[in-house]
Design a protein that fits this description.
With 280 residues, the protein is of the alpha/beta class. The chain has helices at 2-13, 16-36, 73-83, 86-108, 120-124, 130-139, 153-157, 163-173, 189-194, 204-208, 214-229, 242-250, 267-279, and strands spanning 39-48, 54-65, 69-71, 113-117, 147-152, 176-182, 199-202, 233-236, 255-256, 265-266. It is globular. Bound molecules: ligand C2E and calcium ion (3 copies). One calcium ion (CA) is lined by residues 180-181, 201, 237. Its main location: membrane.
Length: 280
């Protein structure tokens, strides 16, 4: 953690030259990390606000750097996107999540839906292995709704990637789609209808100020009503307090995710804390 702090300090104060050097090292290390299996998936529960039950979780990648310790995805995902490494990383995340889901089903008879984050760069990739994903699910004997794909608003604006075709193919295959960080991007409401999204995830910047900002309360309530009218379910991100949870539940929000319930935790911990509990 100390090393990470030092690097961060460098990163923000360094000259452009140093910054470029830091970035090159990060790229080199990231390239090796893919081969050396330095990544791990953490799982964060997504809670049904009307029952308190957990049937969903989000897979969030972690990088254990041999010297720097844990590197945050906010730091390395953008670099992975710039270099194209996100393709391999993204496919790895998918495979891990699918295998994990099958494992929990086989061991405990528990079926949960795991959400994975799919970068626009993956969509843009010509060899985007969507069909391969379907094959993997079949091989594991998993229902296609065992996996949910989280996309961001920016993707919906980019018609060049054949996004609508791909999202239609997802629907045909039974894979559900969530719109992540809703409210922070620029997508028009018309897109929501057009793309047949299953879940809207209210960004944590709205959840955060529910206690103090009545405008944010109004916004959340309006988003929930609109989403339901368009046939979508709503997941609130960044739920940290009972107050926020109760307010969201009262407004009809379907699911909550956040530190109030649990931080993202390793698979073994998630199994201990959540999967076994359901199995019993
Ligand atoms: P995201 O998809 O919006 O994920 C939610 C982030 O909010 C996670 O940060 C999570 O740990 C954090 N979070 C959850 N609950 C709370 C809360 O109550 N309060 C606060 N303050 N934060 C909360 P994390 O794990 O650091 O990931 C950051 C971002 O990195 C993600 O944001 C996502 O955009 C990206 N990311 C993570 N894993 C992957 C991945 O496998 N593939 C891709 N393409 N992106 C990923
Ligand atoms: Ca997400
Ligand atoms: Ca989010
Ligand atoms: Ca995000």
């Amino acid at each position: 953690a100390k090393d990470l702090g030092r690097n961060r300090f460098h990163y923000f104060t360094a000259s452009m030259q140093e910054e470029a050097r830091y970035r090159m090292i990060l790229i080199r290390d990231l390239r090796q990390a893919v081969n050396k299996k330095e990544f791990e998936i953490f799982y964060q529960p997504i809670i049904d606000l009307s029952t308190g039950e957990m049937h969903k979780a989000e897979a969030l990648i972690r990088w254990h750097h041999p010297e720097r310790g844990m590197v945050s995805p906010s730091e390395f995902i953008p670099v992975a996107e710039d270099t194209g490494l996100i393709i391999d990383i993204g496919n790895w995340v998918f495979s891990q999540a699918a295998k994990q889901s099958a494992h929990w089903r086989d061991k405990f008879g528990v079926e949960i839906q795991i959400s994975i984050n799919k970068s626009p760069i993956q969509f843009r990739d010509e060899g985007d292995s969507f069909e391969d994903w379907i094959v993997q699910l079949k091989d594991l004997n998993l229902a296609s709704n065992s996996i949910c794909v989280e996309i961001t608003e920016g993707l919906l604006l980019d018609a060049s990637m054949g996004v609508s075709e791909k999202l239609l193919a997802y629907r045909d295959a039974g894979i559900q789609v969530s719109l992540d960080d809703f409210g922070t991007g620029y997508s028009s409401l018309a897109y929501l209808k057009k793309f047949d999204i299953d879940y809207l995830k209210i960004d944590q910047s709205f959840t955060r100020n529910l206690e103090s900002d009545t405008d944010d309360v109004t916004l959340c309530e309006a988003i929930i009503v609109m989403a339901h009218k368009l046939g979508m379910m709503v997941i609130a991100e960044g739920v940290e307090t009972e107050y926020q949870k109760n307010l969201l539940a009262k407004a009809g929000c379907d699911y909550g995710q956040g530190y109030l319930f649990s931080r993202p935790i390793p698979a073994a911990d998630f199994e201990q804390k959540y999967i076994r509990a359901i199995a019993e």
